[in-house]
Amino acid sequence: MSTLAVRHLKTLFLVEWKLFHRIKSNYIYVLLVPLMLLMAMRFVQEQMNLPTHGLQAGPVLITTGVGILLIFSLYSSVTGLYVARREELVLKRLRTGEVSDVVILTGGASMYLAITLVQVVVVAVVLSAMFGVWPRQPLSLLSGLLTGVALMIAMAAATAALCRTVEAVTVATLPAIFILPMISGIYIPRDVLPDALGDVLQYAPMSSTIDLVHAGWAGDMTMSAGLGRVLLALAWAALFAWIALRRFQWEPRV
Amino acid sequence: MEEPADTHIHVHDLWRRYGRGKRTFDAVRGVSFTVWPGELFALLGTNGAGKTSTVELLEGLATPYRGKITLFGECDPVADRDRIRPRTGVMLQQGGFISHLTVRESVHMWAELTSRSRPVAEALALAGLTDRADVLVKNLSGGERRRLDLAIATLAPVELLFLDEPTAGMDAEGRHATWRLIAQLKEQGTTILLTTHYLEEAEALADRLAIMHRGRIAAAGTVAEIVADCPSILSFRLADPSLVSALPISVTTQRCDGRIVVNTSQLQKDATRLLGWAEEHGVVLEEFTARPASLEEAFIRIASGDRFESAPEQAE
Q1: 3-class SS of residue A109
Q2: Residue A44 near residue A110 (C-beta atoms within 8 A)
């Protein structure tokens, strides 16, 4: 990345950082909602009798936390950001300047990415300390986070491509917010589900990311299995990126 | 076809199509024109004439359905975007600002995104926004937003400036201040393509202009060249209205207030005949005027469609 692109990225990051603090409702959505969801999931997972399925409570809850943060703090926020900036004609105006399309899209998203990563670190450290479990396969954890970030940003761009207005974002992100965590093992680990269902759901968009993050703490994934999960996650990310490339609009549709 | 090598903008047979399949609409239909370095070229037209659609193609914000655009003699606005952007400034028809930033923060953001930007304070002063620097963009008036837009478009000393209705919504003072700034930029050698609804703006600033109508260029040239194609006007009042039938030239309109209007393509000849007849018959032509058509009259004539649907002229 060129020096100019880095300067542009930094500028857009700082603008979004300023705006994040200026609009107080952001704190509630990005910070409070994931925290409350995580507390609720802790209660739900306590009822699942995880040890009988060969699972430990700590890694499962940490994985749930990471999944929730990726969806709420990153995917949902970035989708809203793209659509809002498009409605205000900010994306169109930015394209009249020297900033490249890639930097326009990653510049704003980078602020939410930074917030998400900080949240992930805090949640992971606090829960690891609480449960006395620490990452046993850091490479799996890192792969899970990286593929998760790529998938969430590609999904956000694809969802934004399908939304005409900011109001439509609420509806368009519902499947990802409610259905995706259910089928990808974020709320309910797939090992708890019937085998046949679990086998099918391993191909869901976020399943690979969740498996990799979980393996980061549980340490139960082979290298070849990990590679397969990374490839599947990247395939999903590529599919959403392809949709975004084909359908993304830089200005409101007439 | 003209060689585009020495031009700043060269457009040939440009088309812009919206929609797909059976629901298509051609907003720009075969437009061709050239803008030379240091020139101020104005695109005039009614609402929906295709001005903004054309300018957006030049700005590289959309891809032509057909035709070719060459900027700076060799660049394509879309394919060569990286090379073009540092050399161009753009003022869109509508803002595109983040409403929760202040004016100063907006200009600062753009200064950081622009090579060779002038200092923020200087840009604010040039646009007359120093007093409004700490106001949120969402609280600005329409005219103030246009000034902010202009401040951002002129942040760097560019070679080519696109101004899409730069004074829309401004009060008279703001409009004249903007005209002064545009004239100053032109004096410094900036090539400017301007779209406007205000005919006096085009008359005051443009070296050449083109009038667009229904996606095509209906007339182009200097103001004098455009109005030369329209009939001149003789106008007077007769103390005795019954003399109308005795006039040596045919009357175009007799208004209810008694004023007689004659449209003519031979102003000197018809004026001489009329004045000679009046002298000979001892008739007084009250409030007599003889003048060429104005740009406004030429514009209205084009907008009403009576000289359009024939072959469109080109502005090369």
Answers
A1: helix
A2: no
**Does residue B287 come out as left (phi exceeding 0), alpha (psi in the -120 to 50 range) or beta?**
left
pLDDT of A25 = 83
The H or E element that residue B16 is part of is strand B9-18
Segment (H or E) for B276: helix B267-281
CA distances from B40 to A211, B37, B45 (A): 62, 9, 16
- On whether any CB of chain B is under 8 Å from the CB of A111, the answer is no
Q: Is residue B213 a contact partner of residue B305, using CB atoms and an 8 Å limit?
A: yes
Listed by number, the residues of chain B in 53-92 with a beta carbon closer than 8 Å to a beta carbon of chain A are: 59, 61, 82, 85-86, 90, 92
Q: Which of B115, B113, B145 is nearest to B129 (CA)?
A: B145
Q: In which element (H, E) is residue B299 found?
A: helix B295-303
A254/B61 CB distance under 8 A: no
Contact of B181 with B174, CB cutoff 8 Å: no
DSSP state, B64? -
pLDDT in tens, B12-53: 999 999 988 888 999 999 999 999 999 999 999 888 899 999
pLDDT digits (tens, 9 = 90+) for A54-96: 888 889 999 999 999 999 999 999 999 999 999 999 999 999 9
What is the per-residue pLDDT for B312? Answer: 42
Q: From chain A, pick out residues whose CB is under 8 angstroms from the CB of B115.
A: 4, 98
Residue B9: beta bridge partners? Answer: B35, B71
The rounded distance, in Å, linking the Cα atoms of A73 and A82 is 14
Beta pairing partners, B68:
B12
The pTM of the full predicted model, rounded to 2 decimals, is 0.86
pLDDT digits (tens, 9 = 90+) for B51-90: 999 999 999 999 999 999 999 999 999 999 999 999 999 9
C-alpha dist (Å) from residue A98 to A15, A61, A81, A101, A157: 17, 44, 21, 9, 21
The partner residue sitting opposite B113, judged by closest CB among A22, A92, A99, is A99
Residues in chain B: 316
Q: Is-contact B192 B182, C-beta < 8 A? A: yes
**What 3-state class would DSSP assign to B261?**
strand
Q: Which CATH number fits domain B9-93+157-227: 3.30.70.1230, 3.90.550.10, 3.40.50.300, 2.30.40.10?
A: 3.40.50.300
Quick one: tokens of B63?
């891809």
Q: How many CA atoms lie within 13 A of B122 on its CB side?
A: 8
Render A150-210 in DSSP notation, one character per residue.
HHHHHHHHHHHHH-SSHHHHHHHTHIIIIIHHHHTTSSS-GGGS-HHHHHHHTTSTTHHHH
- In whole angstroms, give the CA distance from residue B32 to residue B1: 10
